[in-house]
Amino acid sequence: MLGEKVKYTLQSDYDHSEVRFLKKNKRVGMLMDELLQNPCRLYESRHFCEKYGIAKSSLSEDIKLINDILQENGSGCVESIQGAGGGIRYIPGISAERIRRLQEGLIEALSDTTRMLGGKYLYTSDIMFNGQFIADMARTFAQKFHSLGADYVVTVETKGIGIAAQTAYMLGLPLVVIRREAKYSEGSTVSINYFSGSTERIQKMSIAKRAVEPGRKAIIIDDFMRGGGSLKGIQDILGEFDVETVGIGVAIEAGFPEKKKVKDYVSILIIDEIDEENHVISVRPNETII
Amino acid sequence: MLGEKVKYTLQSDYDHSEVRFLKKNKRVGMLMDELLQNPCRLYESRHFCEKYGIAKSSLSEDIKLINDILQENGSGCVESIQGAGGGIRYIPGISAERIRRLQEGLIEALSDTTRMLGGKYLYTSDIMFNGQFIADMARTFAQKFHSLGADYVVTVETKGIGIAAQTAYMLGLPLVVIRREAKYSEGSTVSINYFSGSTERIQKMSIAKRAVEPGRKAIIIDDFMRGGGSLKGIQDILGEFDVETVGIGVAIEAGFPEKKKVKDYVSILIIDEIDEENHVISVRPNETII
Question: A72, A120, A176: which to substitute to probe chain B, counting the most B Cβ within 10 Å?
């Protein structure tokens, strides 16, 4: 797939010999920095043994320590896969405690009634493009979806792109952005029309033919779901390429309507009511994501 | 500004007492993980001294070690600001060696002539949404712009959003996304028309009134610049709010036309020619960014 075509990997920045025989705490730090910067990338043990001039046994000790550090910080874990084709990789995660804090932060921001735009619309662009919110939402989705064997993270422009891009990075996967209008710069595209509950209009979405390959798997990430029409649309347009949707994550889910056009999705927050008359926005955390 | 309204900070996930008297190498790792996850966030020394039950002197030792690790890995540095209002923060960076590798990776990907769409257009969406490319381009821009005292990172939808969002995260700043069409969900907006050299058409862009505050400073990040019309447009629309542009970063700059509508921009790559007849795409690294 194209994602592979453009994949390039971060190698060490210096002659290996320079960093041999480092003191343990410095070595552990350098190892951790490299792992954290390459989420879900599988490294052969040899890579680190040669780079730091250490035996497999010392590497195992270092990895165990890094794993303890990450788990204690609620930042994920280091997975060691034994045997041929095995290796070491960092899997981003987030603790239940940190998800709760994320939810509290989002709820505080969303409860600001000056966000009300009328027609039960809320201004949320600043939230969806806030770096710290994005980072922790992406960690939450990555923790949930890392084991699904997906090949892409997919979203539709515009407000979900920040979260989707960070989730793709955390999962080490390419991001595919579906456009509203077929753009010349996308080359030949496939388009579909779908009914959007939020806007109560027929809407269009369009995907570049070369963006995905048949038979692959996708995780869909979006900022908001009301009826699920646009998520269903993404599923359908991916289906046109025989790409299977294996997971759906949305930042905010509307409690209304109760019946959604997609199932098996996870959300971080649920908005139960936007009461414009009494200036109340009722938001609650989705407990099931913790 | 709104960015502040929605800011929430990552605190420690556990009772401080639990982590007192940690072995040094574990403590350093936990400290480093927290710093790396909160780029450009200023921490009071007290925060870490209390969290790990250590004296300022041991903290300084730990910080020095972390700084050595990051510098050796070409991942940035830890800045210690003395005195009142001072503290410790992680400033993301990238080594010259890694920028070169980024440029090589991008050039290899861009030289694929199947990207040619005609009319000197190239398909680049897969590159602009590739997580590893995004991460290192964002590091490059963050290293370049972190000291400009900007309040926002600004981009215009769609293909630059991934890079801009990651740059904003690295700088600890909110991202503002300018839309092509005024969307209802943006609330009241200000729109301008501008001449786009790439499309040779009058185009429109639109920004939410509540997205920025007068008197602030912005860094503009975009995926591609030909004549600079759209960047000029962003500068102008920000100017409508008395927001000053203090830096401009683009992933790819076209060598043609030589005269651009904006100055003082940095680019990572320069495309000199897209020769459709002979199937050649001439791309070179921009040496001045290193």
Answer: A72
pLDDT tens-digit series, residues A49-61: 999 999 999 999 9
- Interior angle at CA A177, CA A175 and CA A179, nearest 5: 175
Global pTM exceeds 0.90: yes
Interface of B with A in 181-200 (CB under 8 A): 184-187
Q: Residue count of chain B, please give it.
A: 290
Written as six digits, the tokens of B58 are 């041991």
Q: Is the CB of A5 inside 8 Å of chain B's CB atoms?
A: yes
**Cα(B140)–Cα(B146) distance, integer angstroms:** 10
| Residue position matching structure tokens 């662009």 | A125
Task: Determine how β-strand A217-225 pairs with β-strand A152-156.
Answer: parallel
What is the ipTM score, two decimals?
A: 0.92
Chain A CB contacts of B7 under 8 Å are 130, 132
Nearest to B63 by CA among A29, A66, A285: A29
- Contact (Cβ atoms closer than 8 angstroms) between residue B169 and residue A139: no
Q: Which of A30, A32, A97 sits opposite B13 (nearest CB)?
A: A97
CB atoms within 10 A of CB B64: 12
Q: Are B129 and A177 in contact (CB under 8 A)?
A: yes
SS3 B165: helix
DSSP SS3 for A280: strand
A68 interfacial to chain B (CB closer than 8 Å): yes
